[in-house]
Queue: 2 jobs
Job 1
Amino acid sequence: MAIEVNGKTIETDEEDYLVNLSDWTKEIAEVLAKQDELELTEQHWQIINYLRDYYEEYQIAPAVRVLTKAIGKKFGKDKGNSKYLYTLFPYGPGKQACRFAGLPKPTGCI
Amino acid sequence: MEEDEEIIKKFLYVNRKAPYGTVYALESLEVVLIGAAFDQDVSLAFIDDGVYQLKKDQNTSVDAGAGMKNFSKTYRALEAYDVEKLYVDKKSMDERGLSVDDLLVDVEILDEAKMAEMMGQQDVVLSF
Amino acid sequence: MLHTVNKSPFEKNSLETCLRLASAGNAVLLFEDGVYGAVKGTRFEPTVSNALSNNKIYVLVSDLEARGMNKDNVIDGVETVDYAGFVDLVADNKSVQAWL
């Protein structure tokens, strides 16, 4: 599988996650979001950027429970809850946000 | 699930292989992370070459040459997964010329008697 | 608690680490290439003989025979078991630690 971004072909797996994490660009996140009929706002980017930083530091995509807690700690209680995160990412903050962020599917996602 | 029906078991993951040379260390870590979703009482033991998994300053980047994922960084994420009991066998660490300052996470160093006691308290032991 | 060792002591330190960290009263079963640790006359015999004062040590007889040995080659005090005995050991102990 693959997606087209700015005339470049980017390889993806059968669940639309990037095959090479180093391929990631902001444009790719926007294309993937558009496929899911989402327009990325600043609130989305806050989570996507956090996920990218988390991956850089720990080399894993966090489980939803871990992400939710960490977001709450960093950005406040009003954001560190499932309702907020699912409003932003209706297919799940783990699966969908990680996909936009160019990360693998979260470890512990069953 | 009803609260009073939940059974919390003690799980011990025993790590005795160096990282990278075989897939054991990474597999163990992945099982620990997946298992963390089940809210059990988890401990990790690092024995023999397993101590090398926790060595600081691992650099596996393409520039450094190995070009592999540096999963040693992931041990630092374990605390957020409520995996907080990391035990290192003192003799294994000493034999390898390592001290706690060489390790990338906080661990508890156990002598033989303490390690044996801790193992005996477990319900399930998974070896890697 | 039951400890199992399936590697030759000449190839891996699994047997040595197992005997070092097994609590007194724990059972140890040697099988597959681990059976070489149960054999008389190797450089590991003193280690295994010493351990017998703290632990019961068993060896799987079919894995011994597969390797050209039998009960007579086993260190005094080490007990031979068949597959049914192996199953009993697993069933009788609260947990099993495999020393790979």
Job 2
Amino acid sequence: MRTKCKGKSTVFFADPPRIISGGTIVGDVEAQGPLGGYFDIALEDDTWGEDTWEKAERKMFEHAVRTALEKGGLTPMQVDILLGGDLLNQIISANFAARELEIPFLGLYGACSTMAEGMLIGSMLIDGGFADRVACAASSHFSTAERQYRLPLEMGSQAVPTSQRTVTGAGCALLSGSGCADKGSLSNVCIAGGVIGRVVDLGITDAANMGAAMAPAAADTLKRHLFDTGRTVEDYDLIITGDLGSFGSELFLMLLNDAGIDAGTRHLDCGNIIFSAEQNAVCGGSGCGCSAVTMNGYILPRMDAGEYERILFMATGALMSPTAGLQGESIPGIAHGVVIERR
Amino acid sequence: MKNERIPSAKEKDYQRRVNERMPKSKTLSQCIRAFVSGGIICCIGQLIHDFAKLTLNYSESNVAAFTAIVLVFIGATLTGVGIYDKIGAWAGAGSVVPITGFANSIVSPAMEFKREGYVLGLGAKLFSIAGPVLVYGISASVIVGIITCLITGRF
């Protein structure tokens, strides 16, 4: 029976799971950015001593989970389910990291929306009585993403004015049911509810303009959530989007404005704050790691300290495929939302 | 029946607004950069050309080959040491169009896909960027050759 739903697509948990800790690892460029000091581990070199960037990314994924577990005072054996994914084909980073962690694993692919997707499903599993503790993780790596989706790194080409830089980073949020008396680095934040995103596609075909491809999905998710709950933007201290970037954010606010919603003062985009203007990221950061490290390293600890009471975190994903792109297809977007409250 | 997707009015309106608001490329400054950087590369080529002709006393056809070889070598080396991508980020077409850009487009995938092995990685991906240029460049030269033969009547 649908007992925990509000409206068509918003869910609220009977017993909201707590986020007890977060683990974050970033590459050297992210570490030099404005949020550099907030992350647990900063790499000096983006191969992290491995032969390939792919191996480095899976190691980052694994260690983001291990760091979150350490900060939550738990071992992998005590975690019931690992949820996570990344941007690479067959989500290899998550799969190989799960092999090392030996936690029962459900792989997710939501492109850059994976962090929110994991937190939403993880909370459902805990509130549904299927798990006590769930680790939700996501990773992305600039060098692995470039070679899979774009051009070789040493190829001399110019950045398009709407392009974004994939964040090298992995983040993990550790969720725990209220029945467990776990004491982690975070003690006051819980996931009160969420909203499952729809795939929205307004026909953007330019793979160098992902903000424009994702903005309609983010606006759709927010509009449906506000409609379901009867809430307004003012009920949230922050409306956080994952990686719309500066141009995508502008379009997101434009689409909300069309619906009579003014989110301007409360909107924050992780892609807009992770790099500084001098770091040549053009429109900002992107990738699963962008929202994963910004949320777990920067936003949640600040919320725990009392800065915000209630936020809506919507990680945005551009579900693009190089094959579909070459065949002239547009880029579908998706955004999942989680309502995080301080209790 | 073919599963065709007809763009709605909402989609068209959104795409129009995206195009209107999109940050634009700075075409004029990019053209100037391309002109200057491409010109510098060509001047270097001319210096190599003159050196081969006047100092080494090579024949005309050898001079052309010598110049191309040296420029490809320079482009490949700068790619290998990680400088050519930085030049390309500034110069744009100025460093893509000359033969040094051709070297860059072959060496950069070679470096990147070496990790997937010498045959299915490096070997298969070597011409992933330059390949289309070669295919259509050579095809075009064949067609031009045939037309020339037909017009001039010399076979």
